[in-house]
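During the second half of the funding period, the structural biology subgroup turned its attention to how the target accommodates small molecules. The most pressing case was zinc ion, which had performed well in the primary screen but for which no bound structure existed. We therefore specified the complex as follows and requested a full 3D prediction, including the ligand pose.
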Amino acid sequence: MHEMSICESLVSIIEDQAVAQSFSRVNLVRLEIGALAGVEVEALRFSFDVVTRNGIADGAKLDVIELPVTGWCMPCAKAVEVKERYDACPDCGSYQIQITGGEELRIKEMEVD
Ligand SMILES: [Zn+2]
């Protein structure tokens, strides 16, 4: 499962941070996940529980912020929000949209002791 390897890399980032910032316990991990990141949030939660077991983030709460797909509409010359990569501009109906966001997958913040 692809979410399992995502969680494994998250845990290694968290462990590196723990060493760098000398904390020993993670209570909450807040993630930002774009709609185009291809991540199944429920699968991610399940994997996170499995991967963090007996580690520094054992029992930590996983908070997921889902980010929309954003793009730059050329005819409108402004940033717009769309549902999917090949959607039309909600304002002018054009397909000349350059996707600028929605592939994010990052730790926004952590609550630690
Ligand atoms: Zn437009």
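Two results from this model are relevant to the next phase. The pocket of zinc ion is lined by residues 73, 75-76, 89, 91-92, 94 (CB under 6 Å). The mean pLDDT is 95.
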